[in-house]
Amino acid sequence: MPEEKDYLPVYRESASYARENDELSPYRLSRRENIACKEAIETSIRKHFDGMHLDPFADKEVLEAFGRSRTMFVLAVTVNEKDYDGRFSRSNKEWAMSFNIPQDRDSAFGDNRLPYVVNSHPAILDGFIDETRRELARKPSVLGKLAENTAAVKKTPPNHSAKSKHEVR
């Protein structure tokens, strides 16, 4: 997944916050993108599940299309909304609870997050989440790579003892 791709930012506030702060446009754009991400996850699971096994590459298309932040946000919202379901692993439930996801309830429409809660079978979705988390752990972010490079440069002392080809002895 290319980190430099410019993904639409995830709007993490509620609809009421967006309304009060004149931010309905970014809220709606992000919500539409969340719904599209949810649909892509469901499509990917259908496409990559053979009835017994989920292809470990099922998450790649979704991550490529929607990026790390949105994919993880939609998955975390899903697990938090279905925290009662014992088919999600404890580690995935703990991971999902670590996200700061505000309540987004509206008197007219109920929970505004429900349209982007993934409806795939929970046991298969749990495997999808496991693989997605593993994939993202393998691929550090650009900031992570920069931090690693900076740390490596700081650890490497300048080599004053090496002589150049042109140095006279």
Give the N-to-C terminal Cα separation. 51 Å
Report the structural category: mainly alpha
Strand content: under 5%
Q: Which oligomeric form is depicted?
A: single chain
**Count of β-strands:** 2
Number of helical elements: 6
- How many domains? 1
Contiguous runs where pLDDT drops below 50 for at least 5 residues = 151-158, 160-169
Assign an overall shape.
globular
Strand line-up of the largest beta sheet: 1-2
CA radius of gyration is 21 Å
Helix proportion of residues, in percent? 55-70%
Q: N-to-C SSE series?
A: HHHHEEHH
* Mean residue pLDDT: 83
Explained architecture:
This protein has 169 residues and is mainly α. It has one domain (15-155). The protein contains six helices and two strands; from the N terminus they run H-H-H-H-E-E-H-H. The protein has helices at 15-20, 24-48, 58-81, 90-97, 122-138, 142-155; strands spanning 105-106, 110-111. The chain has a two-stranded antiparallel sheet with strand order 1-2.
